[in-house]
Amino acid sequence: MPMVLSTTSFAATAALPAVSALAAADEGAESAWIANIEQVINSGFQPVSEWAAKIIFVPIPLPGGNEIPFVLVWLIGWAVFITFYFGFIQFRGLKVAYEVLRGRYSSPNDPGEITTSRPSRRLSPALSGSATSRGSPSRSPSAARARRSG
Predict the structure, then answer these.
(1) What's the distance, Cα to Cα, between the start and end of the chain in Å?
(2) HSE of 115 in the Cβ direction (CA atoms, 13 Å)?
(3) Residue-wise over 32-68: b if at least 16 C-beta within 10 A, else e?
(4) Percent of the chain with pLDDT over 90
(5) Chain-wide mean pLDDT for the chain?
(6) Is the dihedral of CA 97, 98, 102, 103 positive or negative?
(7) Which of 7, 66, 131, 146 could form a disulfide with 137 if both were Cys (CB 3.0 to 4.6 A apart)?
(8) Separation between Cα atoms, residue 119 and residue 115, nearest integer Å
(9) Gap between the Cα atoms of 113 and 125, Å rounded
(10) CB of 119 closer than 8 Å to CB of 102
(11) In this structure, are residues 125 and 132 in contact, taking their beta carbons and an 8 Å threshold?
(12) Distance CA 133, CA 140 (A)
């Protein structure tokens, strides 16, 4: 069956290149405007970032002629301080972390529990913030209980 074009659809089809050219020109003007704003922001913050880089990345000489950036010394210093302050918690907590991962402290009847066979499979959705392994928080048992209870 042959397709019949009306004059309005033909005119709209003929006008498409002109409309797309206008849209491209509009996008070009918009991207130029955005580039101008970016340039103004960059030129305003460039002195601040250069000043901060001079402080943060100042080289600290080490014995043997090597250098280390200040920021690395700062991070290592705080890591050592936090390690002593909290009593080596990253090492003391390894056993508990392993037991939690193995499922020692969880029960299938816990509210909001993700129903899956192994506790290690619960880790990924728990870290991502979703309530179920299906990725839909509204389908979780705890969400259903909350809707029923009010």
Answers:
(1) 59
(2) 8
(3) eeeeeeeeeeeeeeeeeeeeeeeeeeeeeeeeeeeee
(4) 29
(5) 73
(6) negative
(7) 131
(8) 9
(9) 11
(10) yes
(11) yes
(12) 9
Using alpha carbons, select from 99, 82, 78, 102 the residue that is nearest to residue 90: 82
Helical segments of 6-69, H only: 7-56
**Contact predicate 142/114, CB 8 Å:** no
pLDDT in tens, 24-54: 556 666 778 888 898 889 899 999 999 999 9
| Angstrom distance (rounded) from CA 117 to CA 102 | 11
The identity of residue 86, as a single letter, is F
Q: Which of 111, 92, 114 is nearest to 103 (CA)?
A: 114
Burial of 137 (0-12, 13-18, 19+ CB in 10 A): middle
In this prediction, residue 115 carries a pLDDT of 61
Q: Which amino acid is at 75?
A: L
Entry field: residues in the chain: 150
Joined tokens for residue 37 = 């704003």
